[in-house]
Amino acid sequence: MKLLSPIQLGPIEIKNRVVSTAHAAYTDFWQVGNPGERYMAYQERRAEGGTGLIIMTAMHVHETSQISGHYVYEPADLARKMQQMSTRVHRHGAKIVQQLFHYGAQGKSDPRDDWAPMWSFSGTTTLHGEPTHAMTDAEIEEIIEAFVAAAVVCVENGLDGVELHGTHGYLIQQSFSPFANKRTDKWGEQLHFARTLAARVRKAIGRDKLMGFRISSDDFIKPDDGGLGHERLCQVAAGLIDTGLFDYLNHSEGIGGAHYARAIGSYRHKFGEWLPLTRGLREAIKAAVPMIGVGKIPTPDLAERALEAGDCDLVGMTRAQIADPDVVKKLETGQAHRIRFCTGSNQGCFDRARFPLACFHNPEVGEENRFRELAKIPVTPKKVLVVGGGPAGLKAAEIAARRGHAVTLAESGDKLGGRLNLVAVMGDPANLLTSINWLEQELALLRVDIRRQTTVDEAFVRAFAPEAIIMATGAVSTREITAAADDSIPVISGDEAARGEFNGQKFDLANTRALVIDVRANYETALVIDSLARRGSKVTVVTPHLHFGVNVGPSHLVDYLGSLPKMGVEVLPTTVLAKIAGGQGHLRNSLTQAETFAAFDFVVAGSSPQPRHELFDALSKLAPTRTAGDMVAPRSALEAFREGDRCGRTV
């Protein structure tokens, strides 16, 4: 398998072609005084799982690049951390490089102590609408020296090299892009800054260390707006690789902001979406250095096809290794069928970019050290009863069984997965159910006793006599609304809307007029709205919030803001349903108090589901009982998986 074969990057051999590319994870690693342990444990776990090359989260090289949630390093503090990081990664045979960048005309300067402006080449206004300071010649030289100094700290303390970050709209990309660099001096020549920077960094780190470059394969900007497009970016890449300074080429897409939703596509985007552009870059540089292919490559099969087709020489499988850090190890040991595939949820990873990284269905992410310590605690095997076969119950059963307990899972329905099964009829979101499929497979291998269509009550538990109980009985979607209603318009729950049901009967959604009360403004309600519209309903959304989807992460929000208007969905922000009367919904703007009236065929309540915890008091008297998932508080499957895992580890 070519994916598992070694490859030479400049002076260094990489043991296989699987790469964990730079991604926002635990940026507090660079905060002065922070021990950085969580990030080191996270990266070591990927190295332990077999990845060949790790590219660390982008590191700010200069104080003028600081943004909220990111930090500018201090040399002595960073040296200690880099020594530890390199030692821990290298002992598993992986290589590691540090991505270096400067924000330039991106972000906002609010978090900076001195309130100094962001720096740029031409005083460009950032995507956040903030004017920037046009650098002087001396200031550009200062930035270049900052890159050099950062690179030296990294390689002198054990790292294998650095990667210059020339994508996502940051300073290096700005240097060769007409939308951001309008200078008429030497720094206005398209490749002068990047070539000068590369030459000085290479001289400082020497030829025995790796130096890579990351470029956008397409900037998604029209030429009239200062964009380069794929072909001209291929020319830029060729011009940089022709310098002979770089050992590999990496890529992404766009200039940041809303473009991230395309560059880091959710389950709505096809697998390997950008591989044709990867191939274009590789051909443009005449394969002079190895090319890393990226862009939603979640499976080894797709990665192998890309390598065999000559699209690339290494494959970025970043989210794949967030979901399962043992992708390589499982391939090497004939356990490919047990790989836990990325669902494309984005909810735990990219959509939490400003929070600690997580994963939709891998609760180990960010908990590597805690889990390792829990694994050391001796386990006395118990007879464990898990009540409920949704995400929380399934995860609890899996982990409890792995720890040596005899586990029985009782589910009242005929299907595992709980309310997550609602996405089965929603098209692309059905990919989330791969998380349930994987758990079902693992439970079978772990010999968990699964009893479907089983009602658990006090009598059942007394007869079963468990030594421990994990309750994950979920929640029930309701029709509750706060507005007065005269029953002239049917009110249905979110779950009923997802199924297209009223009072247990299916109905045709085509050409219906639906009013959705979006109180929670989260992924679940957004999925229902999208599903209604795709099945032909004319949807009006009222939300008390300032805009649609305030609790939806950026990758999905960008998709929705583009797709919902095209499907005729009308969103009324800062609006509530005042009452239902005479076949009309009375809609009130909560800021102006202005009211409008419209007729609807049905109203979707959009209220929070109600936890099903009525059995807790009775069962907790019969055996030690833990709870997880929606019965604790109705949230999402991400929280349910994590809570189920926690129960399974501590039972």
Structure description:
The protein has 651 residues and is of the alpha/beta class. It folds into three domains: 369 residues, Aldolase class I (TIM Barrel); 141 residues, Rossmann fold; 121 residues, FAD/NAD(P)-binding domain, CATH 3.50.50.60. The chain is 32% helix and 18% strand. The strands form eight sheets. The chain has an eight-stranded parallel β-sheet with strand order 10-9-8-5-4-3-12-11. The chain has a five-stranded parallel β-sheet with strand order 15-14-13-16-30. The longest helix is centred in the N-terminal third of the chain and has 20 residues. It is globular and about 75 Å long. The mean pLDDT is 96.
Quantity of strands, as a count: 30
Overall tally of structural domains: 3
Tell me the structural class.
alpha/beta
Q: Please work out how many helical segments DSSP would assign.
A: 20
Text of the CATH class of the largest domain: Alpha Beta
Mean pLDDT: 96
Strand content: 15-25%
What name goes with the CATH superfamily of the largest domain?
A: Aldolase class I
Poorly predicted segments: none
The level of helicity is: 25-40%
Rg (C-alpha, Å): 27 Å
CATH architecture of the largest domain: Alpha-Beta Barrel
Termini separation comes to 41 Å
Task: Please name the CATH topology of the largest domain.
Answer: TIM Barrel
**Order of strands in the sheet with the most strands?**
10-9-8-5-4-3-12-11
Largest sheet: 8 strands, parallel
Shape: globular
